[in-house]
Amino acid sequence: MNILILAAGSRNKIVQYFKKAFCGEGTVVATDASELGPAIYDADKHYIVPPITDPGYIDIILDICRKESIGGVLSLIDPELSLLAQNEHRFKALGTTVIGSSFELCELTLDKMRMYHWLAEHGYNCARSWMDKGEFFKAVSAGEIAYPVFVKPYRGSASISISKVFDGDTVELLLAHGRDLMIQEFLNGQEIGADVYIDMISGEVVSIFTKKKIKMRAGETDKAVSFKDERLFELIERFVVEAGFRGQIDIDIFDINGEYYISEVNPRFGGGYPHAYEAGCDHMRLILNNLNGIANKKNIGAYDEGVYMMKYNEVKILKA
Ligand SMILES: Nc1ncnc2c1ncn2[C@@H]1O[C@H](COP(=O)(O)OP(=O)(O)O)[C@@H](O)[C@H]1O
Ligand SMILES: [Mg+2]
Fold first, then answer.
1. How many angstroms does the Cα of residue 158 sit away from the middle of ligand 2?
2. b/e per residue, 63-102, with b = 16+ CB within 10 A?
3. CB neighbours (10 Å) of residue 216?
4. Are residues 288 and 275 in the same domain?
5. Exposure on the CB side of residue 309, measured as CA atoms within 13 A
6. Are residues 195 and 178 in the same domain?
7. Using CA atoms, how far apart are residues 300 and 288, in angstroms rounded to an integer?
8. Domain total in the chain
9. Would 283 be classed as within a structural domain?
10. Are residues 207 and 240 in the same domain?
């Protein structure tokens, strides 16, 4: 059973974990648009491919799957998730399983405004959000919402162009100068990250790892500590099953005075996944089982509490 990791970038640990799980089982192949993407050098084999926006991109990936007898393919970057889901039938025809959620869900999670509407309509606690400035100021006047608020691109990622705003003038200024911005209620609470695996065969949530974020840096969790709460596990399970996610997902949650708020979902391995893996949640093994036609047994919360994660830098050296 061989696996293909697309857009490996600098996610070396993800590639290394797959190599461990697939050792003696098959080859780990990785791609990147750059020869200087460090993670490809940790794979058994790698390919340099055009950017995902290239019209011939998906055919090139399908060719790699054919040539390398790839059993499962996944991507580590958001913009590629929908593209893979959209072409799922073409991969399937080659015997390659796309490890991920449906096209509709990938698109939903990319759009923070649509995600907000989905969460609110399905009765989940979430941050009230506006695209319409007039509606937002009406809510402020009515005393339904108070400053600070967050202004951010409704299709943004990596915390780019996110602002915490303390007054109406600044909201006006940001909206006048930026495009595609949304206004969001400030969630004033403990940030939580969840790494979840939904079995690709049974559709059951089989593994959940949750951590409290201690420090964020450049839009990423820099330090975190694992914890467990049955009530949170139940919420995550209900939400994930109701939405219909598949494979690996990463969820941002806030704990505000004991109430959990769902903030956003990335239907892929999140940047903080190594914390889950090192604490005992080996989702690469779950993927391998699924690709071998084996459904995984439910094993939620199979890790220790109080395991800390601290990020630090590494370098890859390559001689020409
Ligand atoms: N409404 C909010 N309330 C509190 N913090 C927020 C809010 N929106 C964003 N943030 C902070 O900014 C980070 C990035 O925002 P997020 O909505 O997750 O977008 P991205 O797609 O860039 O990750 C969050 O992890 C959180 O720390
Ligand atoms: Mg986020």
1. 7
2. ebbeebebbbbbbbebebbbbbbebbebbeeeebbbbbbb
3. 13
4. yes
5. 30
6. no
7. 18
8. 3
9. yes
10. yes
Q: Pick the ligand that lies closest to the CA of residue 160.
A: 1
Q: Retrieve residue 310's tokens.
A: 């601290």
> CA 299 to CA 260: how far, in whole Å?
22
**C-alpha 24 to ligand 2 mean position (Å):** 36
* Nearest CA residue ID for atom 15, ligand 1: 159
CATH of the domain at 13: 3.40.50.20
Q: State which ligand 1 atom lies nearest to the alpha carbon of 127.
A: 1
pLDDT at res. 113 = 97
Residue 156, pLDDT score: 87
| Pocket perturbation via mutation, ligand 1, pick of 116, 155, 252 by most ligand atoms within 8 A of CB | 252
Residue 200 shares a structural domain with residue 253: yes
Domain, as residue range, for 272: 188-310
pLDDT tens, position by position, 72-112: 999 999 999 999 999 999 999 999 999 999 999 999 999 99
Domain of 221, CATH number, reads 3.30.470.20
In this structure, the answer to whether residues 10 and 74 fall within a common structural domain is yes
Instruction: List phi, psi (to 5°) of 208.
Output: -135, 130
Q: Ligand 2 mean position to 283 CA, how many Å? A: 21
